[in-house]
From TrEMBL:
Pfam family, one: OEP
Family in the record: Belongs to the outer membrane factor (OMF) (TC 1.B.17) family.
Signal peptide feature range: none
Name the record gives this protein: TolC family protein
Gene3D superfamilies (UniProt xref): Outer membrane efflux proteins (OEP) (1.20.1600.10)
SUPFAM superfamilies according to UniProt: Outer membrane efflux proteins (OEP)
This protein's UniProt keywords: Cell outer membrane, Membrane, Transmembrane, Transmembrane beta strand, Transport
Organism: Flavobacterium luminosum
Subcellular location as annotated: Cell outer membrane
Highest taxon of source: Bacteria
Length: 433
């Protein structure tokens, strides 16, 4: 009888299922990596860090500027010469035109430019780690949502089976009532239970549809895209704490981020200390100059030529701002070192806790698989007895509910075990993508 029920469900739902696309977890991850908006934003931010990482941005290259300056004036002028002669001119015009090319190059700034260049490299590494962390979190979200759909799909199938059983029970009750072997109350109870099962199934299908929309959102595709998911959750029950800890120490992205932050803080301190040293700058240029004057000994002049020189500046007193800035930078380095130790402790706690949860969930999977098998056998025996009328309706209903609950607990246990596995791989930085 049980096989007949599953056959009926298969025949009813097979045409609909064949019309849908089967989406594997690997395909879901691939689509998310290609489409997810937050990942794209993080990729663009990394591109910005790569563009910024240049010797020019660090201040190592010279700066070349072209300049043009033209000034005109109209004035009423009066000049008294040394011999007493007075010269006057109203609306006297004076014109000045200066243009040229100038080059400035800082050749020494206390090695600040080199520290800045190293810092730009670290900021690019930081952007790369941030991108990987974003990808890792999104992959984890996709996988978690996907396997949630798998467990919900299994529960829907169980509820479908329950409805088939309830319909069979209603039909049996009606037949028994028609021949006078059962009261009308038995038929009514069977109908109420069937309606209850249908209501629960509708609610579960609603949740399943909402979760599908959530997965499509993570994949950044049309929210109404329909698809199928895998039939079962495959669990890796071979994970070892020592191996995961070794991977975590090498690959955990949060630890890598803390180490990079410390290096960035150290380079900030180095740049701050460089302000104590003189800054030497070379300057050169080629300038053209033309002037015109309506009043004076010279009515027009012009010149052109090369100019060059060197500028050196050195801070002497700045109100103790340099000492203050260095103290702050040193404290930031100290804090970044403490943050590394804090992060190490945090990820170790996360790993140990997640591994304990993982082991517990694996034990629950074994227990719930056994419970489901027992509940299935109990339902089959109860169904046979119910058909010949040797047990009351309530006992059959209890067996039916126990079976559905056992399936739900088993699916939930497998889902939780898979989530524990994903969390462990995430902490270890070992999720493949």
């Amino acid at each position: 009888m049980k096989n007949i029920f599953f056959l009926i469900i298969h025949l009813v739902f097979l045409p609909k299922l064949m019309a849908q696309e089967l989406l594997t977890v690997e395909q879901a991850v691939k689509i998310a990596l290609e489409n997810n908006y937050e990942i794209k934003i993080a990729q663009n931010e990394l591109s910005v860090d790569k563009v910024n990482n240049s010797i020019g941005n660090a201040g190592m290259l010279p700066q070349v500027d072209a300049s043009l300056n033209k000034n005109n004036s109209i004035q009423n002028s009066k000049q008294t010469q040394t011999n007493g002669v007075v010269r006057e001119l109203d609306n006297a015009k004076n014109n000045r035109l200066e243009y040229g090319v100038n080059l400035g190059w800082t050749v020494f700034d206390g090695l600040k430019m080199f520290a800045r260049h190293d810092q730009l490299k670290e900021l690019e590494k930081q952007g790369d780690v941030q991108l990987k962390l974003m990808v890792l979190n999104k992959v984890s979200d996709v996988m978690t949502t996907y396997y949630d759909l798998v467990q919900q799909q299994q529960l829907i199938k169980a509820l479908d089976t329950s409805i088939v059983i309830s319909k069979q029970r209603l039909k049996t009750a009606e037949n028994r009532f028609s021949i006078g072997k059962a009261a009308k109350l038995e038929v009514l109870n069977a109908q109420v239970d069937l309606n209850t099962d249908a209501s629960v199934l509708l609610k579960q299908k609603e949740l399943f549809g909402i979760t599908k929309i959530r997965l499509n959102e993570l994949l950044a595709r049309e929210l109404s895209t329909d698809f199928l998911v895998a039939e079962e959750v495959t669990i890796d029950d071979k994970l070892q704490l020592t191996e995961l800890k070794t991977l975590m120490e090498k690959q955990n992205l949060q630890l890598q981020m803390a180490l990079i932050n410390k290096r960035v803080a150290e380079l900030d301190l180095k740049q701050t200390k460089a302000n104590r040293y003189p800054t030497v700058r070379l300057n050169t240029g080629y300038t053209f100059l033309e002037t015109e004057s309506s009043l004076g000994f010279t009515s027009a002049t012009s010149s052109k030529g090369l100019n060059y020189g060197v500028t050196a500046t050195m801070p002497i007193f700045d109100g103790f701002a340099q000492n203050r800035n260095e103290k702050i930078a040193k404290l930031q380095v100290e804090n970044s070192a403490l943050a590394i130790e804090q992060q190490k402790q945090s990820v170790n706690v996360q790993l140990a806790s997640a591994y304990q949860t993982y082991q517990t969930n694996l034990e629950l999977v074994k227990l719930e698989e056994s419970n489901e098998a027992i509940a299935k056998k109990n339902l089959e025996i109860t169904l046979d007895k119910f058909k010949i009328g040797t047990i009351p309706t309530i006992e059959f209903r209890n067996a039916q509910e126990n079976y559905i609950n056992a399936i739900a607990r088993n699916n939930s246990a497998r889902f939780q075990a898979k989530i524990s596995e994903i969390v462990l791989q995430q902490i270890a930085g070992n999720i493949a993508f």
